[in-house]
Amino acid sequence: MSIFSPKRLKAVAVDIGTSSVKVLELDRRGSSYRVGQFAIERLPRNAVVERGITDVEAVSGAVRQAIKRSKCKRKPAIVAIASSHVVSRTVQLPVGLREAEIEEQVMIEASQHIPHPLEEVNLDYQVVDSSETDGSYLVKITACRKEIIEGYSLVIESAGLEAAVVDVDSFAVERGFAFVTAGMSDALRGKVIALIDFGEVTTRLDIFVDDVAIYDRDHSFGGRILTENIRTRYGISFEEAEAAKLSGDLPENYREDLLEPFKATMAREASRAVEFFVSAGRGYESVDMLFITGGCTRIEGIAEVVQMHTGLPTAVASPFSPSGIKASAILQRQSPLLLKACGLAVRGAG
After folding, report:
1. For 315, which DSSP code?
2. Domain boundaries defined on the chain
3. What phi, psi does 345 have (nearest 5°)?
């Protein structure tokens, strides 16, 4: 499995999250894309913990079921590991090196910059920029411990697929976010754009300038808090609370007592995340616009609540549009869950 493989291939994206698995196929139509097969399958609680697979059998079973329900026919799969498991370094190499010489220099640089023995990691590299004026390449080296890669490979192969490419979630999000902003390119040029992903246990902030990620940070907050509050208030199991949260089948006092306070807490977490970035000394004094994504953003009216608390123009991020990724109306309602999956699936669109 490689990270930066430039080859075009037909593959299915397998997005393994904390609470669910998403499988998604994209078909290329010139410069645009259309969603082919798709499915979401819930994961048992704690099958994925701290972005690591702890129950291979449960996760591979969910992938297998999602593939079956989606009627996906592609066997090669693209999967993403968490950026927290990855070490990335950018180094300069002289222009004019042959490929074998680049590989040799990468190994030398990696031995100095990667904090693990090289025999214990999977390593890949990409030339991301070159400058004729100073005679150098910028080369991004990315490495991950083999045991992490092997865990994901085992899940994919146990589900009857071929582990073709391992990506990094931050790379996939950056790729998917380009579709969110595609129709606003001119208006957003040079602007500081925030993307906040409200996950089940973690909220992640990414900051983009001209579609390039310049900052990211995880915060310990997620939708599981609301599920636990429902479980405690109504004396039901966690599984029953999760099902009731998703269906809305809850007593009348749920909205006032639990949902509205949770929305306010989400908004405060968004404000806090942005404040962390502004105070991080990156040379930016403010954020110009905020996009939100993740399962929690399917809560009615949440974008308005976040906008009121942060004072920032706020919208739910969707990678689907007539000029970018075409999808059915039913699938578009799931768009807050599919940003990373779309970023992975682009690499498998052929």
Report:
1. E
2. 12-83+147-176+328-348, 85-146, 182-316
3. -65, -25
Q: Which residues pair with 137 in a beta bridge?
A: 93, 130
Quote the tokens at residue 22: 């998403």
- What is the tens place of the pLDDT at every residue in 265-305? 999 999 999 999 999 888 899 999 999 999 999 999 999 99
Secondary structure (3-state) at 143: strand
Predicted TM-score (pTM) of the model is 0.89
Torsion 325-326-331-335 (CA) sign: positive
- For domain 182-316, the CATH superfamily is ATPase, nucleotide binding domain (3.30.420.40)
Distance from C-alpha of 152 to C-alpha of 302, rounded to nearest angstrom: 34
Give the pLDDT confidence of 122-176 residue by residue, as tens digits. Answer: 999 888 776 555 678 888 899 999 999 999 999 999 999 999 999 999 999 999 9
Cα–Cα distance for residue pair 290/303, rounded to 1 Å: 9
